[in-house]
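User: Predict structure, ligand KG4.
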Amino acid sequence: MSVYTLALESSCDETSAAVLKDGRLVLSNVISSQVPIHQKFGGVVPEVASRHHIEQVIPVIDKALIDAGITLNDIDHIGVTYGPGLVGALLVGVAAAKGLSFATGIPLVPVHHMEGHIFANFLANPELEPPFLSLVVSGGHTMIVHVKGYEEFHILGQTRDDAAGEAFDKIARVMGFPYPGGPHIDALAKEGNPEAIEFPKALSEEGNYEFSFSGLKSSVLNYLNSKNLKGEDINKADVAASFQKAIVDVLVEKTRHAAKALGETKITVAGGVSANKGLQVALETMCKEEGFTYYKPSGILSTDNAAMIGCRAYYMAQAGKFSDLHLNAKPNVPIGAVSWVEAE
Ligand code: KG4
Ligand code: ZN
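Assistant: Predicted complex:
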């Protein structure tokens, strides 16, 4: 008999609901984005995000069920993002999922947002199975994760300061682009020379899988300020291309070395920054050089969406990882934390 998952995602500025069949077949994936609302503030305003999640959550769930052609009666479990993210935003999805679970008796599965991003790869690549290495790059996180099995994650290293997406957004902002800036830098970088300016690459010694992007950010800001003070022209395309190269080189080289050190030959990428064309090309090239197989989520599966949460929820449900109704939003929870009710 088929297993149907209903999933909810509301950790940041997308309200999303999805229905999956047997964990990997997406029957619906409805996303209500608040990007245009937050754009005028230059970033996500948490209180505004919470209010819009409240308005959107029920219509989005209704649409996901209608698009999938099923009703709540057909659903076997409800997966919901409980962290990490903005606490007020997370609470809306968690409260909605708990309400549905309480009213219907459908079991609740508490999903970690970043584990969801990694599992987007299973939706985009039906043949993919663990173990593999995952480069996780989003607006809030940057890390290399060894996915040893569906329930076994080992973080090799993460960022000490800014996440890669955060660095993209901050630099884009000072260059005059609207939020989120990553895609704008990506587009502009295609027209520039990535070798034009040498920006620093922190912690690049072999065997170090941690990241740091705050020095790079300061260096780009200093470069722009000093050009402005001297009244010199700035070639924005060259700045975008050189900045992007500095980030991409670090991400790709650390992934290469981690995979070689572990003897892992399957590489996946996850999170919003995985949409970056420069990163995709560089990862693909590195994987060809090393004889690795490269997997990536595409389109809406790379940024925040509920289908990826549903895929993670399906495997957790298979492993018996359910939550009771005491589930709460956790803004800072690490990957692999125990979020389910453990058997006595
Ligand atoms: O995973 P995501 O949708 O949300 C978080 O969980 O953070 O990632 C959003 C981040 C933003 O920082 C955005 O600028 C970045 O992903 N991003 C990109 C691109 N598309 C989205 N960064 C660089 N190049 C892109 N094409
Ligand atoms: Zn995300």
